[in-house]
């Protein structure tokens, strides 16, 4: 008996947080309740179950001390109601059903815990665990610093429509202006086939990027992606640094190409009366000011007018997106150019269906790289995925981009080349004549600016996260983070301005950017991602074999 009870004291059963019931000593082994006629069995079923669960041999019963017969009626020994458990860490703990359930569970656990000596410790541990969880929940919701919560930056705030607008504004910008000259170099039929095929491949490579990030959700940039790709070779960290540097260089060249296009635009509008360096500095300042918002949603007002116009009523809510100004800008400019070249006199050099005579290898590859540049938006896709409210919606944004992109590329390139002839200018807006070209360039200014701002934002965010990784400045708007963001964006735009002034030829700059970086980010590295996503399934059916090849 001493092993069961732990001492020679009377048997005790804890029935609440603060009350104990003392069992009657020397009960009859067969029926301990029968010798007390005053015991109400219906009123104390839990006590009978407790006493019946204790089996005491007769020899040990004689050794138990008798302190006298208990005169107290058993009906008066009902335990008082358990006090409501309220955490003193919070004043708003008002979940009544949860409290009652937890108290009932703890009471029933206490009633059955008399079979072992660890019952009390288990119950106390449960209460302590409940109290700790209550404290954690309430401190997470009520103990935040008000000044810090107001300065917190919410990055995952875009919906798929806003993402589509950003992707259209980022991708359909400068590339479309070089495509008519591409057809003039390699011919109408080869050019159409290349634009269509490379557009479909770019669509699928973007979808593979989405699948790869779904498998590795920690990816936020190309550096993170290449670290995973190179890890099987033991070069994960090296791959991270190389890809990060390549991404920054690619974005810097893209930013420089937008400054160069800005210079060409302003030179056309002013008739060349102002030095190109002055226009370059003015454009650099505008790009830098518009790059000060730290989130993609903060920039989406530039791509979608007033973000999304929402019309709501009591019965239903209708969301009506307005056309993005960047897309409307470049679309209107290209349409103006197509109308202008269509109503002009026939060109002196008509179009040709096949490549022109004496085409050099350099000219052919330069034309192909210009098509690659037109689909070079993949460099920013990981950033857009990271800031989507629902990352699974990225294929919707990608489909919207590619359908609009391929259609607009084909229509504009074919129409402008057919009516302008083999002497089409690059950028194509210069083929519209002196007056109309000024109008077209003026309409295209929003696209030139917004797409460059998006590239600058992606580059600045990578550098900023690289410097302040793991610190509070990444997700909050502090004085240090604000000044650092301003300095980083300004420094990157200064470098881009230097690149634009150093390579003043539009097609040459686009070809250099494409050959160095765009082909890898759009077509090369997504192929390696496909091998990771479909590992072990490369030989399943004709489609998988074709993709593997």
UniProtKB/TrEMBL annotation:
The keyword Membrane applies. One of its GO terms (cellular component) is membrane. Residues 60-73 have a biased composition (Basic and acidic residues). Its main location: membrane. Keywords: Membrane, Transmembrane, Transmembrane helix. Residues 1-122 are annotated as: Disordered. InterPro entries: AA_transpt_TM (IPR013057). It is found in: Membrane. Residues 158-544 form the Amino acid transporter transmembrane domain. It is a multi-pass membrane protein. This is 82adc8bc-b06a-4d67-8d62-8fbc98280478. The lineage of its organism: Eukaryota, Fungi, Dikarya, Ascomycota, Pezizomycotina.
């Amino acid at each position: 008996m001493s092993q069961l009870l732990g001492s020679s004291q009377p048997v005790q059963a804890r029935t609440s947080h603060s009350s104990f019931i003392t069992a009657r000593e020397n009960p009859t082994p067969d029926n301990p309740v029968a010798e007390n006629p005053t015991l109400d069995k219906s009123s104390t079923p839990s006590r009978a179950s407790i006493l019946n669960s204790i089996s005491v041999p007769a020899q040990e019963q004689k050794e138990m001390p008798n302190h006298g017969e208990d005169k107290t009626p058993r009906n008066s020994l009902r335990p008082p109601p358990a006090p409501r458990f309220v955490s003193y860490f919070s004043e708003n703990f008002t979940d009544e059903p949860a409290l009652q359930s937890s108290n009932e569970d703890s009471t029933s656990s206490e009633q059955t815990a008399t079979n072992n000596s660890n019952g009390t410790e288990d119950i106390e541990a449960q209460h302590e665990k409940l109290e700790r969880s209550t404290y954690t929940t309430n401190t997470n919701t009520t103990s935040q610093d008000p000044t810090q919560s107001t300065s917190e930056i919410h990055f995952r705030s875009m919906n798929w429509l806003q993402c589509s607008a950003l992707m259209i504004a980022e991708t359909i910008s400068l590339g479309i202006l070089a495509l008519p000259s591409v057809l003039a170099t390699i011919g109408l039929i080869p050019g159409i086939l290349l634009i269509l095929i490379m557009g479909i491949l770019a669509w699928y490579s973007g979808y593979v990027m989405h699948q790869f990030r779904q498998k590795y959700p920690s990816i936020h940039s190309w550096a993170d992606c290449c670290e995973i790709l190179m890890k099987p070779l033991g070069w994960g960290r090296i791959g991270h640094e190389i890809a990060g540097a390549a991404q920054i260089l690619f974005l810097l060249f893209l930013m420089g190409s937008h400054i160069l296009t800005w210079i060409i635009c302003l030179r056309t509008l002013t008739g060349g009366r102002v030095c190109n360096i002055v226009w370059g500095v003015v454009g650099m300042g505008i790009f830098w000011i518009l790059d000060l918002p730290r989130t993609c949603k903060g920039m989406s007002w530039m791509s979608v007018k007033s973000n999304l116009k929402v019309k709501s009523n009591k019965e239903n809510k209708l969301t009506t997106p307005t056309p993005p100004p960047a897309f409307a800008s470049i679309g209107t400019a290209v349409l103006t150019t197509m109308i202008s070249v269509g109503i002009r006199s026939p060109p002196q050099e008509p179009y040709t269906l096949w490549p022109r005579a004496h085409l050099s290898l350099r000219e052919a590859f330069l034309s192909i790289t210009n098509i690659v540049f037109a689909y070079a938006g993949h460099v920013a896709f990981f950033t857009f995925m990271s800031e989507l409210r629902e990352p699974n919606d990225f294929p919707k944004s990608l489909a919207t981009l590619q359908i609009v992109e391929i259609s607009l590329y084909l229509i504009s390139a074919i129409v402008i080349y057919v009516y302008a002839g083999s002497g089409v200018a690059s950028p194509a807006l210069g083929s519209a004549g002196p007056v109309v070209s000024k109008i077209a360039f003026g309409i295209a200014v929003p696209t030139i600016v917004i797409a460059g701002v998006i590239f600058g934002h992606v580059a600045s965010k990578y550098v900023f996260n690289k410097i302040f990784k793991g610190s509070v400045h990444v997700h909050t708007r502090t004085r240090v983070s604000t000044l650092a963001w301003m300095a980083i964006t300004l420094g990157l735009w200064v470098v881009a301005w230097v690149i634009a002034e150093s390579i003043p030829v539009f097609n040459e700059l686009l070809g250099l950017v494409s050959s160095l970086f765009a082909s890898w980010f759009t077509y090369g590295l997504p192929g390696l991602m496909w091998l990771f996503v479909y590992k072990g399934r490369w030989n399943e059916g004709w489609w998988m074999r074709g993709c593997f090849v």
